[in-house]
Amino acid sequence: MFKKERPIPPELVKLRILNYRTKLTEKEKLQLSNKEKGYAGELEFDCLIRDLDTLVINELLLEFGETFFQIDTLIIFYGRIYLIDIKYYEGEYCYEDGLFKTIAGSEKKDPMLQLNRCHSELRQLLQKYRYNYPIDAFLVFNNPQFTLYQPSPNPQIILPTQVNSFIKKLYKMPSKLSDVHHKLADLLVSLHKTENPYVRLPKYDYDTVVKGITCGSCHSFDVSVSRTKIACKDCGCEERMEAAVLRHVEELLKLFPDIKITTNLVFEWCKVVTPKKKIRKILLKHFILKGHGKYSYFVDDSKNPI
Ligand SMILES: [Zn+2]
Predict the structure, then answer these.
(1) NERD domain location, by residue (predicted)?
(2) Of 53, 146, 173, 235, which has fewest CB within 10 angstroms of its CB?
């Protein structure tokens, strides 16, 4: 059972928007592409373990001491916790003199060091809350196009050809859970942080990002707008005007979480949607209006979410 589903990582959400609203550098484009691959690899792994009869927590960002650590997948079995880091690396890699390298010889950040650090921080965090479960940590490489040459097999490293047998083993693990296990899962989910302050994103601000309504499917700015809908001239996708405006408000909030949503702001962000009255009507339907006159703004209405 998935106690916590895997969200699209917030940095990936932002990078996707910035990709069509700013000009990303080649390095930033590579960052986006790596994030997309990593996320796809995690979703692939999720499919394999979705039917486990135990507690699975996906994508946990935790803080211990002054540091943040991220867990791709955490599985609570009876008397044991599995900490799994999923790497969707492609190509040939090797461990040489204890260093993690591409086959061409360039040294890369060793994912095993990252896993061990995470393992140690999770253990300390759980001890703080008086949980003393043994934790086993694994590095799963699940891209079939990945090979790793290592001096001797490491039981913590699961290579693409070993993924199936690893999954079979997971399904055979004792999964009889009690309230204590559920409480532990609740605790970990409650400790989850939504945003990692150390993630580096391209610099952007409201003035420099390109405004305008875009297609919800291919993100083209080349859309025709009628009274009730928008239609993409590139891919043919159509969307109701109300849904399109709300999608753009969501986009604004993802890029600028502290921005005050006003009719004028959304009008400026969407550019081609007229009249303003229509935007105001949509915002009034889905948000709560706070303040008065020119100082009024809209806040999220959880009873009637976007
Ligand atoms: Zn389109």
Answers:
(1) 37-148
(2) 53
